[in-house]
Write a structure and sequence with these properties.
The chain has 465 residues and is of the alpha+beta class. The chain has two domains: 7-234 and 446-461, no CATH class; 238-377 and 385-444, no CATH class. It is built from 14 helices and ten strands. The chain has helices at residues 33-45, 74-80, 84-87, 92-96, 102-105, 137-147, 220-223, 238-253, 258-261, 267-270, 276-289, 329-333, 383-396, 454-461, and strands at 22-29, 66-72, 128-134, 152-160, 227-236, 352-358, 373-380, 421-425, 431-435, 441-451. The strands form three sheets. Strands 2-3-1-4 form a four-stranded antiparallel beta sheet. The relative contact order is 0.18.
Length: 465
Amino acid sequence: MSAAFDPEELQGNILRGYRNNLVRYIVLEVSDRAKARQFLAASADGTSSEIPAITRSANWKEKPKVCFNIGVTFEGLRALGTTNRDLDSFPLEYAEGMAKRAIKLGDVDESAPGQWPAPFDEPGRIHIIASVYADEEHYLDQAEAQVAKAFTVLGVRNGRNLPDSKVFFGYVDSISQPRFRHVFDPAQVKVDEPKDPLGTVLLGHPTHFEGMLFSIPQPDVLGRNGAFNAFRVLQQDAKGFEDYLDKAATELLDHPKGDLLLAPEDEKRVGEDLDRHGALREVVAAQMCGRWRNGVPYELSPDAQWPADAVSLTNYSYTRASRCPAGAHMRRVNPRGGPIVQRVANYSRRLVRRGMSYGPDFDPANRDSAERGLLGNFIGANYGAQFEAVVCDWLNFGLQDPEITGTNDPLLGANVPETSAFELTLKDGGRIRLNGFPRFVKTRGGAYTFLPSLPAIRYLSQLSD
């Protein structure tokens, strides 16, 4: 462990999640540099009742009622007075910002930045994204009112946890997160995945690659112990997804190899109250994701959503004989120790994921098309080697495995019905190809932000014109 590591110097929600029920993201513009700096100084100090305090490491004995953190865009650093010399030390991806990286991220057509609603339609004005976590809404309102005294509020996005830790597609979410050496998280006591080095997410610490550190922006006090975040507003077409499952299951009912996909005796192991059509819907959903919708890995239980014996949710890997499709979402974004092109990349592109849902409830039995989705944060130490590599190389091009190269992730990929393809695996090693599904997740906004340490926030507050 690096001697420079002190968890109390980190913003919270990086190494451990808060697990509150509500979140509000407040998109801010620095319109008065002096007021903004004064706010940052007081927020880092944490002693003012009029300014929300930056929440540090989540190693608390008593959880605070409000958790407050900030992410600063490249233009935000400029607006606070960071010199051009220091700005030049930050990576290109961050300097360009999410909107200019759209093609690489698959943000095209309806997901293109030109289609993003305010305030994301003016990325140059987005300087800071503040996040406020709480269990009661009045705390979010109070923090927003306090922030508005020092910044121009361009817009807000509200999120909430859905029951049973699910997302609108019906899957249990946030099962597999990186866990870090030297960091105790009681929520991950029973997790049995390999531990990740701190340099996976924090600048200035060892990475998976021996002798290699990601470069630290300068001055050192500004860059060290910071992290980079991709904040994404992701619209989830829950109706379109459920409609497609209906279509796929109907086609599979009469498929000559249908019994190799789901044996008649296994239907009740998929769902006690499901007929064959309903069970086939769940098999398609499970193979597309790599997990059954209750969270059980398809790799460990390919014939049953409800296995007779409990299985680990995290301790498994993939082989060439895996029943979990190579193109499944979970296998694309986290190939674990499985066989992929450039094996050195195994476990090296891990991202911390923090997210909550937005929009109205969804009833699969009475489907509507209201906008709903996920407010997601994807945190790491290097955009190019982690977030963009996962989204571009693995999720949207399938470059990690020749069997799926040229296809997109079935759930998050930039699909169109004319070219979409996904192969279901069968018990005998054969495949059934599905086609004709649309893009289920569309980007509705976002920004690349830097999550500075507490010393870095104090440094920014002390900049002079």
